[in-house]
Amino acid sequence: MDTCDPVQNVFVEIWHTDITGTYSGTKSDSHPDNVDKIYGRGFQKTDHDGVISFQTVFPGRYPGRTEHIHVMVHPHAEERSNGTVLDSTASHVGQVYFDQDLIYKVRNTSAYRSTNNHPVTLNEDDAFFRDTAATSDPVVTYVELGPRIEDGLLAWISFGINTTLAHEVSVSGTLTKDGGVLTPNLALPEDEQEWHSDLTGWKTIMKKDAQATEAPRVAKARGAE
Predict the structure, then answer these.
(1) How far apart are CA 128 and CA 137, in angstroms?
(2) DSSP per residue, 60-120
């Protein structure tokens, strides 16, 4: 954080809900099969400039939370020969958010109006947003890619990390070749759970989902410094 040098060749993980406000990689009474799904989750490795990018959809809200994307930097993760990453150390864990006016636009699209009936939580009423905004600016900069919000967005944000820091994080489960396996006796709120995603599988599924849905797409650029 003191040098502003780009952090190269480290894996950055993101995860977020779908437009209904539901996470993959977890299990609930209403979504008992989501433990095997990996939508809205993935890893990318930073390039020479400390930049990574994701193509995904705009996340949906759920009770008590405004729309957001989780981000975690894994300083010691390595891609394995089968194209997966398995790591439970992190040098940064945080969340990024969207401008409230942009959220209003997305919520008014037919895809979100018809599928997400959760109570509305504004940015200013989200405790996590307020805590983060008290010390930094967690809201992405963006441009719209067409005359309609459904045409998509290009959003970006930069943040600094402590490259000497690495601590263990709790994980809700692991994605294996036979499906998702939840961590036994782990009692974490759904919003705080982290999942180890399959690199190739996530990329394939996310690209397919983003093209098939009418939800606004977000090309998410992230820089670690």
Answers:
(1) 13
(2) PPBTTB-SEEEEEEETT--B-TTSBB---EESEEEEEE--HHHHHHHHTSHHHHHH--SPP
Distance CA 84, CA 102 (A): 34
- In the block, tokens 């405004």 appear at 66
| This prediction's pTM | 0.81
Of 78, 66, 77, 53, the C-alpha closest to 17 is 66
CA atoms within a 13 Å half-sphere pointing along the CA-CB vector of 185: 0
Summarize pLDDT for 54-90 with one digit per residue, the tens.
999 999 999 999 999 999 999 888 888 887 888 888 8
Give me the phi and psi of 128, to 5 degrees please. -65, -40
The DSSP bridge partners found for residue 40 are none
Longest Cα pair distance anywhere in the chain, in angstroms?
49
Question: Mind listing the pLDDT tens digit for each residue in 55-65?
Answer: 999 999 999 99
* 131-141 b/e (C-beta count within 10 Å ≥ 16 → b): ebeeeeebbbe
